[in-house]
């Protein structure tokens, strides 16, 4: 049996998982040396067009719905209101476009798409405000402070809904970009595994070129040639992305020559650096002395962004406490009626810089549950240092419901209000857990612990210990306000699904 570029299939380095690798639609191989320039897929054009239409419709609908009310409240004529509405729509769409919010590279994955949309709306507000000042149009204020923010309130959920439709298609094996990976077998296998675990990102590795292990498959992905011939295989196979994994073969000169060879092929060259867990706002590429240099800035634990985060945390906690107060009163009553003991459970936890504080939760276990841990150690199903049991006999009937929907965590909003915790951050560990931390794991303590975080929206207690640590450290390294917003949004889905909560 042969793969799409004519090489015999080889024995597998690791047994592939059924259903994870689906071959793309077959196409006849091109003659050797003949370049293939794969056009942008139809679904990419369609998805980008849908995003543009969605943003435009959001702006138009808000202007149509709110514009007349704004105009009448200021005594504006219908023609003047119409002109201001058209200007607002035009400025918003131009600003969003200029901030590359519609670029294919940013659509469908990561927080960058929402960050670009947010910047576009912010700059649109600034442009409208400055325009109003420049032309003495005082009636622009409602358009700046009411209409444009309303566009954002509608545009962000619409973008998210489109993204979920795209992710569903990708889970069904559609709307995926064919990828070839080139590097040593270990690094290539790691990249293949990551893409299979995160199929929603849209990559499907279909072939590999390596400098070693040429007689094997890489988890079901065929090794089709040697690393030095990768450009020819990309052109012949029509791959959309060439992912370069670490390998001693890749010198600066060879990478430059590879980029030249791929010109006109339609393939994007993506180089995976050794800093696999550093991304986002900490990475900057600049040309110095004719060389592209990757700058890795230190994680931002202070500064204006952190002040903004603290303000958002405390204001958000106050608002949530006000809104959730009836539910919290009802939950407290249920706990009191269900079993004997206090309504609240207090526990010492470790916060930022190793400082201990007391968290408050609704009690979900019988009184004296802490003293029963030793007797239940044989039943421990937790990951790493965490003690967890799916069918924990200590949990009360009401506690099972409160845990499933994370209602028991709501009193920790008081910890956020006091500045001991954040809305988003790593989980607050117990002192005995923290005492057993390795030096790298202790980096979790560089930021405030959070009510929710990357591990909570990625499976919670179902995650292996190493994966939960990796996610927490990734948050510490790559923190941004946009990432916080995405995590908060995903938290609602995780809470309602109850996945991994026990």
From TrEMBL:
The keyword Transmembrane applies. It is a multi-pass membrane protein. It comes from Actinokineospora xionganensis. Residues 309-496 form the Bacterial sugar transferase domain. The lineage of its organism: Bacteria, Bacillati, Actinomycetota, Actinomycetes, Pseudonocardiales. Keywords: Membrane, Transferase, Transmembrane, Transmembrane helix. The chain crosses the membrane at residues 51-70, 82-99, 120-137, 143-162, 315-337. It is found in: Membrane. Belongs to the bacterial sugar transferase family. Residues 28-38 have a biased composition (Pro residues). The keyword Membrane applies. Residues 1-41 are annotated as: Disordered. Its main location: membrane. GO terms for molecular function: transferase activity. Pfam families: Bac_transf. InterPro entries: Bact_transf (IPR003362), EPS_sugar_tfrase (IPR017475). This is Sugar transferase.
């Amino acid at each position: 049996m042969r793969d799409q570029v004519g090489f015999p299939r080889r024995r597998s380095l690791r047994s592939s998982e059924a259903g994870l690798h689906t071959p793309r639609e077959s196409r006849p191989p091109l003659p050797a040396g003949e370049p293939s320039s794969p056009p942008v897929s139809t679904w990419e054009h369609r998805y980008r067009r849908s995003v543009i239409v969605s943003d435009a419709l959001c702006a138009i609908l808000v202007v149509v719905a709110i514009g007349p009310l704004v105009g009448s409240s200021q005594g504006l004529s219908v023609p003047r209101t119409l002109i201001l509405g058209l200007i607002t729509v035009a400025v918003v769409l131009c600003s969003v476009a200029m901030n590359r919010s519609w670029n294919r590279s940013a659509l469908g994955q990561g927080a960058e798409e929402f960050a670009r949309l947010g910047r576009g709306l912010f700059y649109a507000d600034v442009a409208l405000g400055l325009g109003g000042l420049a032309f003495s149009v005082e009636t622009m204020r409602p358009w700046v402070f009411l209409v444009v923010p309303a566009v954002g309130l509608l545009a962000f959920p619409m973008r998210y809904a489109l993204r979920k439709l795209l992710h569903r298609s990708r889970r069904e094996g559609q709307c995926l970009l064919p990828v070839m990976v080139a590097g040593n077998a270990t690094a290539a296998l790691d990249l293949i595994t990551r893409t299979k675990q995160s199929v929603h990102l849209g990559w499907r590795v279909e072939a590999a070129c390596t400098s070693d292990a040429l007689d094997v498959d890489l988890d079901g992905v065929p090794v089709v040639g040697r690393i030095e011939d990768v450009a020819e295989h990309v052109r012949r196979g029509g791959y959309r992305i060439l992912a370069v994994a670490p390998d001693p073969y890749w010198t600066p000169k060879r990478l430059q020559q590879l980029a030249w060879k791929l010109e006109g092929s339609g393939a994007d060259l993506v180089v995976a650096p050794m800093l696999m867990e550093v991304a986002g706002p900490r990475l900057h590429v600049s040309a110095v002395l004719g060389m592209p240099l990757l700058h890795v800035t230190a994680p931002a634990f202070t500064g204006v962004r952190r002040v903004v985060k603290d303000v958002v945390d405390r204001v958000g906690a106050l608002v949530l406490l006000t809104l959730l107060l009836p539910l919290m009163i009802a939950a407290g009553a249920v706990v009191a009626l269900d079993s004997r003991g206090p309504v609240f459970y207090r526990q010492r936890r470790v916060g930022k810089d190793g400082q201990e504080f007391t968290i408050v939760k609704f009690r979900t276990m019988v009184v004296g549950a802490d003293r029963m841990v030793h007797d239940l150690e044989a039943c421990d199903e937790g990951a790493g240092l965490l003690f967890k049991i799916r069918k924990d006999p200590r949990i009360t009937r009401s506690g099972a419901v409160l845990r499933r929907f994370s209602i028991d965590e709501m009193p920790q909003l008081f910890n956020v209000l006091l500045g001991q915790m954040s809305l988003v951050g790593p989980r607050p560990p117990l002192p005995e857990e923290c005492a057993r931390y390795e030096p790298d794991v202790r980096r979790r303590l560089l930021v405030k612990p959070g009510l929710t975080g990357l591990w909570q929206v990625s499976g919670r207690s179902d995650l292996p210990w190493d994966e939960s640590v990796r996610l927490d450290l990734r948050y510490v390294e790559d923190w941004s306000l946009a990432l916080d917003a995405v995590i908060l949004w995903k938290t609602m889905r995780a809470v309602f699904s109850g996945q991994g909560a026990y």
